[in-house]
Design a protein that fits this description.
heterotrimer, A mainly alpha (391), B mainly alpha (131), C alpha+beta (274), A: mainly alpha, Formate dehydrogenase/DMSO reductase fold, two-stranded antiparallel ribbon, 13 helices, C: 3-stranded mixed beta sheet, 33% helix
Amino acid sequence: MIEKVLKGKSTYWMWLAVLGTCIAIGAACYVRQYMFGLGLTGMSRDVSWGLYISQFTFLVGVAAGGLMLVLPYYVHDYKAFGRITILGEFLAISALIMCLMFIMADLGQPLRGLNVVFFPTPGSMLFWDMCVLWGYLILNCLCGWVILTAERKQVHPPKWIYIFVYISIPFAVSIHTVTAMLYCGLPGRHFWLSAIIAPRFLASAFAAGPSLIVLACLVLRKFANFDAGKEAIQKLTTIIMYAVIINTFFFLLEFFVGYYSGMPGHIHSLEYLFFGLEHDGHVYNNLVPFMWTATAFSFTGLGILAYMKIAKVFDYRLVGVASALIFLSLWADKGLGFVFGGFVPNPLNEVTEYIPTANELGITLGIWATGFFILTLLYKIAVGVEHEIEA
Amino acid sequence: MYNKGTIIPGLVIFIVFVTFPLWYNGLNAGPVPKPDLPVGEKECVAPAGEMRDNHMKLLNEWRDAVLRDNDRANVKVGGKEYRKGLQMACMQCHTDKEKFCDSCHTYAAVSPTCWDCHLTPAEAASKKETH
Amino acid sequence: MDNTRRKFLKIAGAAALAGMSAPAIVKLTSHTAFASEDAGHATPAHGEAGAHGEPVSTGVRLGMVIDMRVFAVQPMLLDQAIAACNKVHNIPHFTDRKNEIKWIWKAPYANVFPEQETLHKSEMAKTKPFAVLCNHCDNPSCVRVCPTKATFVQPENGIVGMDFHRCIGCRFCMAACPYGARSFNWQDPRPFITNYNPDFPTRMRGVVEKCNFCGERLALGLEPACVEACKGTGAMVFGDLNDPASEIRGVLDKEFTIQRNPAAGTRPSVYYIV
C-alpha cells in the first residue's frame, strides 16, 4: 500500500514540498538549539515550560479526538463513519508522533531520554504518559494498517484486531487523562490544581480532533475526490458542538470557583489570561488578545454550527469556517493559555512573561509540518485504497 | 534465486561500504596510545589492567555511592587517602587530563561527558581565585 | 517455507520486544528501585491536635532555622551567606532573570510567604530581605514527579538530592516545586562562573539544580557554607530535626517559627523566626 504515496497530482507534490521546506527550517533550528541549549527559547526560570510542552498537550487531545470516530463506528455500529474512521486513526498516529517530537525538543538532555526506561519511576506521571502515548501510537498503527489492508482486499478484518480496537478506546481516554495528571497533581500551581482539568481536556479533545478531521474531509473532497458523506460530516459537527459546549461549561466553572471564592491563587492565572495581572505597578497581559480572540472564535463557530442545525441548511464552506474557528480557539485555550497561564504568577508571586523566540517558533513549525507531512502520506494511502476499491 | 543481477552487486557494494574504515586505514590500527603516567606513583585503586578495562564502571559506582547512597568512605591507595571522585581522587595523581585520559579516548573515538561538569586540573587552574 | 519464515519473524519480533522491555521490568520488580523513596520515611504520627495522622520521618532529618531577627540587624550577613554558597558550588552569575541559577537568594517577605501576606506587616517584614532556599521537604513533590529518580530523598539524612548525571532536563520538578527553589541550566554555565572551586563540579547545560544542603561538606564534617558564613551569630541553625537534644530542636522548642506554604503538604525542613 505504501506505493500509493509515490503517485500524485502536482498539488500533492507542491504541498509536500511546502511541508518539506518547513521541516528543513525546523531541523536547522533544532540543530542550533541542540548545540547551544534551551537558552535559545523564550523559556525562563519562572516559565519553565513553553511552546513545546503546550503543543504537546494540545496534540495529545487531537490524538484522543479520533475516539469520536472509533467509538460510534465500532461500538455503536454507526455505518456513516465507515469511510472516515481510518482518518481518525491516521490523525492519531501523526498527532502522537508530533507529541513525542515536542517532548524530545523540550528535553534539556535529549540523549538521556531513555533514562525514563532505564530507571522506571511509577510514581511519576511522565513515566505513565510515556507508556500510554507509545501504547496508543502502536495500537493505532496496528489497527489502522490491518483494517485498511483488509478493506483493500475486500475481506472482513481478522477477528483478533477488534480486541485491539476495543483496547484503544480506553487508551484514548487514558492518554489525555494522564496528560492532565501531569498538571493537576502539582501542589504549588493553583491554576492546574483542579480536578476538572482531565474532563476539560477530554471535552476540548473531542472537539479539536473531530474539527480537524472535518477540515481534512473538506480538503480531501476538494483535492482528492474523496467524499466523506454529508451525514458523517453532520454527525461530526454535532459531536463538536456538544464537546465545545461542555468544554466552555467546565471553563466557566473555573471562573466561578476562582472569582466567587475570592481566593487569590485561584484568580491570578485567570486574571492574567483574560484581563491582565497587575504586579508592582505593571500590568502583564500578553495573552489577553489570544484568549479573547479564542473566546470570540469559539462562540462564532458554535453559532454557525447551531444556525445550520436550526435552519436545517448544510453548506460545506460554513462547516469549514466553523471547524477552523473552533480548532483555533481550542488551540489557543490549551496550546497557549493553559500551560503559560499556569506559570503566572510563580510560587514566589512574581510575574515573568513568556514570549517564544524565532528559533523556538521554527522548531515548532518544523514539528507541526512533520506531523502534517506524515498525515498527508497516510491520508494519501487511505484515499488511494478507497479509490482502488471503487474502481 | 531471483534478481541475482541486483542482489549480488548490491551485497558487494554493501560489504565494501561497511568495511571501508578497515581498508581505508590499510588494515592498520595505527600507533597504540601511550598515556602519560603519574611520576613517582606506583599504585592505583586497582591493578593497571583492571583499571584500563573497568575504570568507567568504577567511576559510575563511585558516583552512585557518593550521590545516592551517601557512602563517601575514602579510598586508600598506597597509604594515602582520597575522597571518592574523578576530581577528588583520580586527577590528584593523573594531573593531566589531556595527556592521560584523552590519549586513549581520542584513539578509541569515545567522548565521555565527564568533563562537561567535572573540572580538569587545567580548567580548575584557569579560573583560580586571585586575592 | 513461507510458513516457517513467518514463524521465525514472529518469534524474532517478540524476542526483540521482550529484550527491549526487559531492563524496565527487571528494575520495576527489584526492591532496590524503591529503596531511596521509602527507607525510614513512613511512621504515622500521633498526638498533635491539628494533625490527621500524617506520617513523620524517623532517623536523621536535617533542617534549618533562619532567624530573621539576626539578619535584620546585620544587613551584610545574608549577602555573605549567599556569596559563600555561590563560591563553594560554582554557581554561575547571570545578570538576566531568565537564566538565573539560585541555590540560596534574597526575596521580600511578600514573595517568600505569599500565603501569609497581610496588609499591616511589621517593619521587618516590610523592608528586610528574607533568605530563600530549597526546603528539603519530607514529602517533596519534585521527587514524586521526577521520571528518572534524578532527584531523590537521601534516606540517611532527609536531604533532597540531585543526580546531575541522570537528569534529562524535563523540568517537571520545576513545575512541581511549590517554592520556586529549582533552577535550570538554559545554557553552558561555565563562562559565567568567575572562580572555580576545584573541589566541586560545575553543571552542564540542560540539567536542573538546587541547594543540596552541602551534602559534600557534611561528609567532611563541615557545616553548610551559608551556615558557616553566619557562624557565631545564630542567624542560621542547622541540625537534625528528629533529635530532641539537638541545637536546632532547642531553638524550635523555644521560638515561634513559620514555614513556607505548609498547606502544600510537602512538610518543609526549613523554619523561619520572623
